[in-house]
Design a protein that fits this description.
- By secondary structure, the chain is an alpha+beta fold.
- It contains five helices and three strands, in the order H-H-H-E-H-H-E-E.
- It has a three-stranded antiparallel β-sheet.
- It has one domain.
- Helix content is about 50%, strand content about 15%.
- The model has no long low-confidence stretch (mean pLDDT about 95).
- A hairpin with a 3-residue loop joins strand 2 and strand 3.
């Protein structure tokens, strides 16, 4: 049994599980849209598991934060994308990657 949820419902699940610190408001919107696109691409519904999403993805404000977190020296978000870690962009400089 599957339930279709809205962007609002998606964000509320993070609130209910006390996980709003993991992503910004814009980050949650980005994550929701990217997961919907992924569902369309793979033609399969994804089960909403907030804890799993918090473990699988991480949001960065900018490239400098990413480099500090992973002790790397990436010079562009495109490099992160080429490595296969970029999941979606958030605003001007932010982005969400798969945790690695």
């Amino acid at each position: 049994m599957k339930k279709t949820i809205s962007n609002y419902d998606f964000r509320q699940e993070f609130v209910l599980l006390n996980r709003v610190e993991n992503f910004t408001y814009e980050g949650l919107n980005c994550l929701f849209e990217a997961l919907q696109d992924l569902e369309d691409d793979i033609d399969e519904q994804i089960e909403l598991d907030v804890i799993s999403l918090c473990c699988e993805f991480i949001e960065f404000d900018n490239l400098s934060d990413y480099n500090e977190h992973y002790a790397t020296d990436m010079i562009s978000i495109e490099e992160i994308s080429d490595e296969g870690f970029l999941f979606c962009c958030v605003g001007e400089e932010g982005f969400i990657t798969r945790e690695h």
